[in-house]
Amino acid sequence: MKTRNEICGYPVITARCGKIDPDSIEDYIAAGGYKALEKALNMTSQEVVDEVKASNLRGRGGAGFPTGVKMETILKTDVFPKYLVCNADEGEPGNFKDKYLMENDPHQLIEGMIITAYSMGIEKGYIYIRGEYNKPIIIMSRAIEAAREKGFLGKRILGSDFSFDIEIRSGAGAYICGEEFALIESIEGKAGRPRSKPPYPTVSGIYNKPTLINNVETFSNLPFIIQEGAEKFISIGTPSSSGTKLVSLSGNVNNRGVYEIPFGVTIRDIIYKLGGGIPENRKIRMVQLGGASGPCIPEEMLDIKLDYKEMENKGLTMGAGAVIVIDERYNVLEIVRLIMRFFRHESCGKCTPCREGNRQILRILYRFVSGNASNNDLALLESICNVMCQTSFCGLGQTAPTAVLTTMKYFRDDYLSGMRNLSTNSNIV
Amino acid sequence: MVKLKEIIERRGRASENLIHILLDYQKSKDTNYISEDEVKFVANELNIKESRVYSIITFYSLFSTKPRGKFIIQVCGDVPCYVNGSLNVVKELENILRIKMGETTPDGVFTLEHTSCLGCCDISPAIRIGEELYGNLTPGKIAGIISSYRRKYNENKE
Ligand SMILES: Cc1cc2nc3c(=O)[nH]c(=O)nc-3n(C[C@H](O)[C@H](O)[C@H](O)COP(=O)(O)O)c2cc1C
Ligand code: SF4
Ligand code: FES
């Protein structure tokens, strides 16, 4: 897989990818690895947390919560034991950047986890990797073993008073297990259904103890922030979004792959400059941002910048950074139906709006695709989507209708033509 | 159930290890499923209710309560794969294996399943057979892949 940093100028987390052997801890150390950990061990907990806070790092798993704030909450709780979890469940269609990081620079993730654990007095960490990711599981296991042998993990790390170890837990095929509480249930050996919040995992997580959950990419940023300092980190990206973002670029685009970009690059540049445009110079029908739960935008909106604030202003989200390109050969409603089929399959069934809503949306979409929708269907569709967003128990049901709602907004004609009996047959089952 | 007992001993009897135990064991079986007797056995060994074991194997899509083929072919049909031609891959697989999605070949070698995104959308359309990923697929590549597994299966039998 390619990573191109040409428009990045200053790669933060992919600097070593493809340049070192992921199975060689010596390579990682020779490239400056585990230096940040040494530095952190000479700082106080508060100093580490302050540095992360100053960096403005926001979680890269989708929700974009400020990482330093989450760390501070855990630091201030004096309930022990506390747990650390790396969320490597990555099951959303269009996302594969966490896999890329684990396969190419596993020690960077481990180092980020150790630094976090140290600053919060955590002794036990888990990496929860989806069951389909065999290769990352193998590479991470070997890397943990190697880190243990070198004294970066285990008892009294590098001669300090701090002890910490990491265990790998595998998922078994359930997208919902990326949701924090579903993940926690799964780590406890149960079916992954969300718990109600509050209390949040930072207060009551694994075995009801304080638990910090971060994404792979989030942890992978920490060695840089500690080593180079928050100021350097802030100098990359935009005022509202510091650092870089990994983008998983897929769909109808010439150079698919993982790219590290500084925040502030436009979606158009990602697709045309990094992705090399669309095969056979076809036109773009739409682009889905973030993955299956993200918004679908038309060609005219591609000049939007990847930036938390700018996207929020336009009512959009970047999720975990997927960019899925769909070219003119495809029908918007067919694609939306496929997206909703994913959610119907992945809904855990715990709450009614999501369990039933996904099914009903699919039925109505089918009427549009086959040209049989009635005048009421548009209003009904919108109403079901809104009920789901507002009343679903967890993030899955709350964001599942995003593709429907955004296409109803930006591709209204496609829906209208489904009511006028103009559309063609469907071949999705 | 010697193998199952071995796995339980290796993974440990705490119920938090249930998912790993079941994954390891299912992987070690040619029929790729967990039977009623095996559920009873695991529940007994871990001192938990059978329903607890069922709550796992019915929830997670990598498990099955019905026998499946030695090689499970999981075909991804989510958007990035779809727009790169996953439908043609499905058609060709159904042609060559002479089964429909969700079915197992009569000789018990292959099961064709639908899966959600495999996280290799950069090489879509993609499929997973056992633990191997195959990407950038075209219908033309399918026959070769299938026959390599048939060969592997026959060699192991001899
Ligand atoms: C249905 C659902 C699936 C999710 N899947 C993932 C995932 O695969 N990886 C991930 O890091 N976060 C995922 N999240 C977000 C996590 O719940 C959580 O916000 C994140 O792991 C926090 O880490 P961060 O602050 O570093 O982003 C998911 C959320 C929902 C609601
Ligand atoms: S919103 Fe969906 S996934 Fe979340 S708890 Fe409800 S049914 Fe389960
Ligand atoms: S959509 Fe098929 S592997 Fe991601």
Topology:
The complex is a heterodimer of chains A (429) and B (158).
Chain A: H1 25-30, H2 35-41, H3 45-55, H4 67-76, E1 83-88, H5 97-104, H6 106-120, E2 124-129, H7 134-149, E3 165-170, H8 180-187, E4 211-215, H9 216-228, H10 230-234, E5 244-251, E6 257-262, H11 267-274, E7 284-289, E8 296-297, H12 308-313, E9 322-327, H13 332-346, H14 352-369, H15 375-391, H16 395-399, H17 402-410, H18 412-419
Parallel strand pairs in A: 1-2, 1-4, 2-3, 5-9
Antiparallel strand pairs in A: 5-6, 7-8, 7-9
Helix pairs in contact in A: 2-6, 2-9, 3-4, 3-6, 5-6, 6-9, 13-14, 14-15, 17-18
Chain B: H1 2-11, H2 18-28, H3 36-46, H4 50-59, E1 71-76, H5 79-82, H6 86-97, E2 110-115, E3 127-129, E4 132-134, H7 139-157
Parallel strand pairs in B: 1-2
Antiparallel strand pairs in B: 1-3, 3-4
Helix pairs in contact in B: 1-2, 3-4, 6-7
Please give a structural write-up:
The complex is a heterodimer of chains A (429) and B (158). Chain A has 429 residues and is an alpha/beta fold. Chain A has 18 helices and 9 strands. Chain A has helices spanning 25-30, 35-41, 45-55, 67-76, 97-104, 106-120, 134-149, 180-187, 216-228, 230-234, 267-274, 308-313, 332-346, 352-369, 375-391, 395-399, 402-410, 412-419, and strands spanning 83-88, 124-129, 165-170, 211-215, 244-251, 257-262, 284-289, 296-297, 322-327. In chain A, the strands form 2 sheets. Chain A has a 5-stranded mixed beta sheet. In chain A, strands 3-2-1-4 form a 4-stranded parallel beta sheet, with helices on both faces. In chain A, helix 3 (45-55) runs antiparallel to helix 4. The longest helix of chain A has 18 residues, at 352-369. Chain A is globular, with a radius of gyration of 22 Å. The mean pLDDT of chain A is 95. With 158 residues, chain B is α+β, with helices and mostly antiparallel strands. Chain B contains 7 helices and 4 strands. Chain B has helices at residues 2-11, 18-28, 36-46, 50-59, 79-82, 86-97, 139-157, and strands at residues 71-76, 110-115, 127-129, 132-134. In chain B, strands 2-1-3-4 form a 4-stranded mixed beta sheet, covered by helices on one side. In chain B, strand 3 and strand 4 form a beta hairpin. The longest helix of chain B is centred in the last third of the chain and has 19 residues, at 139-157. The two termini of chain B are 24 Å apart. The mean pLDDT of chain B is 96. The A-B interface holds A 1, 90-96, 99, 130-134, 169-175, 186-192, 248-252, 256-258, 288, 292, 324, 326-327, 330, 335, 338-339, 342, 345-346, 348, 427-428 and B 14-20, 22-23, 52, 55-56, 59-63, 77-80, 82-84, 87, 115-124, 128, 131. The complex binds flavin mononucleotide, iron/sulfur cluster and FE2/S2 (inorganic) cluster. Flavin mononucleotide (FMN) is lined by residues 59-63, 65, 67, 87, 89-91, 176, 178-180, 213-215, 218, 394-396 of chain A.
